[in-house]
Each structure stands twice: as C-alpha cells, then as structure tokens.
Amino acid sequence: MSRNNRKKKDDQDNWKSRLGTVYSTNPDFEYDTEGEEEEETLPVNQQDLRVMLDKKNRKGKAATLVTGFVGTDDDLKALGKMLKTKCGVGGSAKDGEIIIQGDMRDKVMELLKSAGYKAKKSGG
Asked: Which residue ranges are recorded for the region named Disordered (predicted)?
C-alpha cells in the first residue's frame, strides 16, 4: 500500500472519532466535557420496584426481572448481587434493571420486602 493510500485510509477511519467535536474560533471557548451525571440513590423505603417474569429474548427460559431502581450502578449491582446470592442463582444487573435466572418472583419479593424496599408484582 502506498503512503498516500495509507494516509487516506487512516483519515477515513478517524472521521468517526471526530463526530460530536465542537470547533470554535473564540479564544475563550471551553468545551463542556461533562457527560451524564449519575443519579443519587434514593433511600430504600422510597424505591418503588416492580418484579415480573420475563421470557422474551431468552429462548423461552424464564427470568425474574426487577425494574424501577433509581440510583447509581454500584448500588444496583450490590442489590443484584444480594438477590442472586440469596436465591442461589445467576443473573445480571445493568441499565437500571436486575435479571435473576429462573422464576424467583416470590423469593425476590420476600427478600426485597425484608430489606425495606417497596416492591410490587407486575405482569402476568
């Protein structure tokens, strides 16, 4: 590959990294690099959680889904870990929801209520 062709290829690959970049001729311009601010975690008694059974996108296998958590990712993961440990199953906690493998709705409801959360069953 010649030097000019390599340079053109590098320029084509780098254009994506420049998307969203602001250019200004103002010498006093300051680029705002702040992303989304994480929400503070609500107290346990103010959390309004929904517990439901979900089979979508799981090849027919059941999973218990806990939604409605308001707070930081670390607190969400801590709650998810507690639920997974107490239920003795796997799962994940991301994007504001906790997924517990299997139909564990009753046990999850019991655990959330004993921890002081307001939880309701929703869905079928």
From this structure: 1-42
Look-up of token digits 């939604």? 67
69 touches 96 (CB < 8 A): yes
Please name each of the domains of the chain with its CATH number: 44-121 (3.30.780.10)
Contact 64, 103 (CB under 8 A): yes
Nearest 10 degrees: CA dihedral of 44, 39, 105, 118? 30
> In this predicted structure, what is the pLDDT of residue 37?
58
Q: State which amino acid sits at residue 3.
A: R
Percentage of residues in the chain having pLDDT higher than 90: 51
The pLDDT assigned to 12 comes to 55
Please determine, for residue 68, whether its predicted confidence score (pLDDT) is greater than 90.
yes
Question: Alpha-carbon distance 115 to 79, whole Å?
Answer: 10
Query: Which tokens in the block code for residue 99?
Result: 């997924």
